[in-house]
């Protein structure tokens, strides 16, 4: 759960304490609260610290009315402001909203729930208004693309065309809470980056930080990934800005069905085929498939991949991303003359990708000495049992309390001495700050965008061999493609067939990438990007421009 930094500027001690205690008790949010009693004190705090939200009483000992608002607005920029108004000052509070405050609440008449929701929504709305495209991930995706475009001498016209997605849809959608008293409104997205190559393909992410920029970055990477693997898809991505761990199963189902309905004109087996990503799974895909099918009037399993096998899902899809990554680790080890049976690995993230990667590494004889989830890292230099870890997570939903290892932070985990490091959680984990302390020989990226450009340069200088995300985690979309092929042909493949074909596709992409890297003296990430971008550019030129 993300911490929201709130500054409460309020001179009445009673109201200050009340607001603090209400926010502190919220079950679905975590607030770090600071307070100020006077405007000058508040302004000083705003100058020193980046807050996510300001709760502001307009009538303070050293400033009153709109002057208070204007001065806070000047100092805080885009930070959302929720006005705390007295009963007599409602007109003034309304004027502040007109001037840019997100909301106002009347002191003494506001219930705890209302206050929490007003603050949460203010943060979300301000984010939507000011920062939709402004995501570090989108900057990273664009920078990586521009670097590759420069090195390959990409045609200017095509470069401009590919820098932003072709279609993006932003929706707000409501869903009912279980008590049927509350309706939540959240932001949802679907982005299609390139429609040249065939239908588009990309996962659906449920995470509180999802926005248009992040979704666009992920869609762009999907384009390069599909082209690199020679799959007949353009890239897409979707998501909802919500923390799914705070929802009941019924709430998750209602949210998913409404989100599907909102994006239904964009998706379809010949248009755009979603799949799971962070925070979504087979069950969520089954609900997407059912909602779509209800609209069409008959079952359309081929509208999503990563479904349960009983609904037309492919054998081997669930573990495909981890399995594909480990196929590549095996190729890379041969390339680097590394003996896997004497190697150690550290895996960040113990969800779908991380836990499967850890399992297959263990099966190949690699000693997995560290794993982590959002709550903790677990380290044991003698090796961890992946089975025991999975059983612990199945029971407790977290790695916390795992008995056969030492608890460490995610930061420490990334810096452990090891041969193979697998980031399989979040973006932006290996940065210019920690890259000098990364100690692996092989970085096998399961997550999307885990390494910044600055970190890339440092890792290159250190001689770390990188399996970049668009190659490293492409096993997922590859078996998703197999699932779509099976569904459209009404024909089921055996697990052996799926894994054999996956192996062939992964190894072929690895060899093309390493050959290009060696021939053109490029790092692996740039080589993989150019391999993908070139195919898209060729397809665009072949189709020509309409009209
Ligand atoms: P998941 O939701 O199944 O698991 C995510 C894991 O990361 C969980 O263990 C979670 O606790 C952990 N985590 C979350 N935030 C963290 C943080 N700040 N620090 C450390 N750990 C954290 O998600 P997933 O499907 O395994 O996806 C993981 C990554 O792999 C994402 O970047 C996703 O885009 C990428 N990916 C997934 C697939 C797929 O098939 N699922 C395919 C390609 C790429």
The total domain count is 3
CATH class of the largest domain: Alpha Beta
Largest sheet: 7 strands, mixed
CATH architecture name of the largest domain: 3-Layer(aba) Sandwich
At CATH level 3, the topology of the largest domain is: Rossmann fold
Number of strands: 17
Topology:
Elements: E1 3-9, H1 13-25, E2 30-36, H2 39-48, E3 53-57, H3 66-76, E4 81-85, H4 90-98, E5 103-106, H5 112-131, H6 136-152, H7 156-162, E6 167-176, E7 183-192, E8 200-206, H8 212-228, E9 234-240, H9 249-262, E10 272-276, H10 282-296, H11 320-336, E11 344-348, H12 352-363, E12 367-372, E13 377-379, H13 386-396, E14 406-408, H14 410-414, E15 420-423, E16 442-444, H15 453-462, E17 465-467, H16 469-472, H17 475-489, H18 495-520, H19 524-543
Parallel strand pairs: 1-2, 1-3, 3-4, 4-5, 8-9, 8-10, 11-12, 11-15, 15-16, 16-17
Antiparallel strand pairs: 6-7, 7-9, 12-13, 13-14
How does this structure look, described?
The chain has 547 residues and is α/β, with parallel strands linked by helices. It has 3 domains: 3-130, Response regulator (Rossmann fold, 3-Layer(aba) Sandwich); 136-311, Leucine Dehydrogenase, chain A, domain 1 (Rossmann fold, 3-Layer(aba) Sandwich), CATH 3.40.50.10860; 320-476 and 504-534, 3-Layer(aba) Sandwich (Rossmann fold), CATH 3.40.50.720. It is built from 19 helices and 17 strands. It has helices at residues 13-25, 39-48, 66-76, 90-98, 112-131, 136-152, 156-162, 212-228, 249-262, 282-296, 320-336, 352-363, 386-396, 410-414, 453-462, 469-472, 475-489, 495-520, 524-543, and strands at 3-9, 30-36, 53-57, 81-85, 103-106, 167-176, 183-192, 200-206, 234-240, 272-276, 344-348, 367-372, 377-379, 406-408, 420-423, 442-444, 465-467. The chain has a 7-stranded mixed β-sheet. A 5-stranded parallel β-sheet has the order 2-1-3-4-5, with helices on both faces. The chain has a 5-stranded mixed β-sheet with strand order 6-7-9-8-10. A hairpin with a 4-residue loop joins strand 12 (367-372) and strand 13. Helix 11 (320-336) packs across helix 17. The two termini are 48 Å apart. The relative contact order is 0.09. Bound molecules: nicotinamide-adenine-dinucleotide. Nicotinamide-adenine-dinucleotide (NAD) binds next to helix 12.
């Amino acid at each position: 759960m993300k911490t929201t930094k709130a500054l409460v500027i309020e001179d009445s001690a009673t109201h200050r304490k009340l607001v603090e205690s209400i926010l502190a008790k919220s079950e679905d949010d975590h607030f770090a609260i600071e307070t100020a009693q006077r405007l000058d004190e508040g302004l000083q705090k705003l100058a020193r610290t980046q807050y996510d939200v300001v709760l502001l009483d307009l009538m303070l000992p050293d400033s009153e009315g709109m002057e208070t608002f204007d001065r806070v607005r000047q100092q805080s920029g885009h930070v959302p402001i929720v006005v705390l108004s007295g009963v007599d000052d409602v007109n003034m509070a309304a004027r502040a909203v007109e001037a840019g405050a997100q909301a106002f609440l009347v002191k003494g008449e506001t219930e705890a729930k209302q206050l929490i929701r007003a603050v949460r929504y203010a943060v979300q709305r301000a984010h939507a208004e000011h920062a939709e495209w402004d995501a570090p991930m989108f900057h990273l995706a664009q920078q990586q693309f521009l670097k590759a475009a420069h090195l390959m001498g990409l045609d200017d016209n095509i470069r401009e065309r590919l820098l932003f997605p072709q279609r993006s849809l932003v929706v707000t959608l409501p869903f009912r809470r279980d008590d049927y008293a509350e309706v939540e409104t959240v932001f949802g997205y679907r982005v299609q980056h390139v429609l040249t190559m065939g239908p588009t393909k990309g996962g659906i992410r449920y995470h509180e930080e999802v926005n248009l920029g992040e979704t666009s970055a992920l869609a762009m990477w999907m384009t390069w990934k599909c082209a690199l693997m020679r799959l007949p898809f353009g890239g897409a991505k979707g998501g909802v800005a919500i923390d799914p761990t705070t929802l009941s199963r019924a709430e998750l189902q209602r949210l998913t069905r409404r989100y599907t309905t909102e994006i239904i004109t964009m998706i379809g087996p010949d248009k755009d085929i979603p799949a799971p990503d962070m925070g979504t799974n087979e069950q969520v895909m089954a609900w997407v498939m059912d909602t779509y099918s209800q609209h069409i009037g008959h079952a359309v399993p081929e509208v999503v991949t990563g479904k349960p096998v009983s609904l037309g899902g492919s054998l081997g899809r669930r573990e495909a991303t981890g399995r594909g990554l480990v196929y590549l680790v095996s190729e890379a080890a041969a390339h680097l003359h590394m003996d896997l049976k004497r190697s150690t690995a550290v895996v960040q993230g113990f969800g779908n990708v991380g836990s499967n990667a850890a399992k297959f590494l263990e099966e190949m004889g690699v000693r997995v000495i560290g794993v982590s989830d959002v709550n903790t890292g677990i380290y044991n230099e003698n090796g961890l049992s992946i089975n025991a870890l999975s059983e612990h997570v199945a029971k407790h939903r977290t790695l916390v309390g795992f008995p056969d290892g030492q608890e460490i932070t995610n930061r420490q985990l990334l810096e452990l001495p090891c041969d193979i490091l697998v980031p399989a959680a979040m973006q932006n984990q290996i940065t210019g700050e920690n890259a000098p302390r990364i100690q692996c020989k092989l970085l096998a990226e399961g997550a999307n965008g885990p390494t910044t450009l600055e970190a890339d340069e440092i890792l290159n200088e250190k001689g770390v061999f990188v399996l970049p995300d668009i190659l490293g985690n492409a096993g997922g979309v590859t078996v998703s493609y197999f699932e779509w092929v099976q569904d459209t042909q009404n024909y089921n493949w055996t697990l052996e067939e799926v894994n054999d074909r996956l192996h062939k596709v992964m190894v072929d992409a690895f060899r093309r990438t390493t050959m290009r890297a060696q021939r053109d003296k490029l790092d692996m990430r740039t080589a993989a990007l150019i391999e993908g971008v070139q195919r898209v550019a060729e397809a665009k030129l072949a189709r020509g421009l309409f009209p």
